[in-house]
Amino acid sequence: MAISVKICGINTLDAMKASIETGSSFVGLVFYPPSPRAVTVAEAINLAKIVPPTIKKVGLFVDVSRKTLKNITDNVPLDILQLHGKESPQRVKKIKQFKGLPVIKAIHIENSGDFSKIEKYTGIADKILFDAKVPKNSKNSLPGGNALAFDWKLFGNQPWKNHWILSGGLNAKNISEAVNLTGANTVDISSGVEITPGQKDPKLIKEFLETVLALS
């Protein structure tokens, strides 16, 4: 089974080149200012220029306003929108209709009951991204990219097929176990290929992608 990889939170040309050259299927640009991975519109335009059409450019947003979304999507040639906040199904539907682009909706997982949230977005979001829920007592946490993993055994025999993405605390050392336990065919990584928060390491990107490709 071929496994697709999304490298998220790319904010330098070196990281973008490493992601492209080593085989990523998706590259993520974060438009959430509090994140150390955030890019400006000008930076995103510059990064997007080198991405070939065979690789999908994903814009990550957190409870974004219509005005901000319009400004970004009018200027940056995104292929997919990723919503990583508390967007309701109604809001997801409106955003999807706004630009006519596919939408990924992030769902945060802590226990098996959290998977029930998927039902609300069925038929609305094109893909669901599973990320780890941040503990309530955690300080300075972000909606994503916190290097936290959830218990992959929670997946059990869930009847999901190709419309979901595994995220949360992945790295080259644990990706094999994560794929074996969940059956994921698309994985998303950000902090797992960083030296410090927001600073991607081309060598770690290459190592992760080569490890995943070896699993296929």
Describe this structure in words.
The structure is a single chain. This protein is α/β, with parallel strands linked by helices. The chain has one domain: Aldolase class I (TIM Barrel). The chain is 30% helix and 20% strand. An eight-stranded parallel sheet has the order 7-6-5-4-3-2-1-8, covered by helices on one side. It starts with a strand and ends with a helix.
Helix-strand layout with pairing:
Blueprint: E1 4-7, H1 13-22, E2 26-30, H2 41-48, E3 56-61, H3 66-75, E4 80-83, H4 89-99, E5 103-109, H5 118-121, E6 127-132, E7 164-166, H6 175-182, E8 186-189, E9 194-196, E10 199-200, H7 202-215
Parallel strand pairs: 1-2, 1-8, 2-3, 3-4, 4-5, 5-6, 6-7
Antiparallel strand pairs: 9-10
Helix pairs in contact: 1-7
CATH hierarchy: architecture: Alpha-Beta Barrel
Roughly how many Å is the radius of gyration?
Answer: 16 Å
Q: Would you tell me the overall average pLDDT?
A: 90
Helix content: 25-40%
Kindly report the spatial arrangement of strands forming the biggest sheet.
Answer: 7-6-5-4-3-2-1-8
What is the count of structural domains?
Answer: 1
Biggest sheet details: 8 strands, parallel
How many alpha or pi helices? 7
Low-confidence stretches: none
User: What's the CATH H-level superfamily name?
Assistant: Aldolase class I
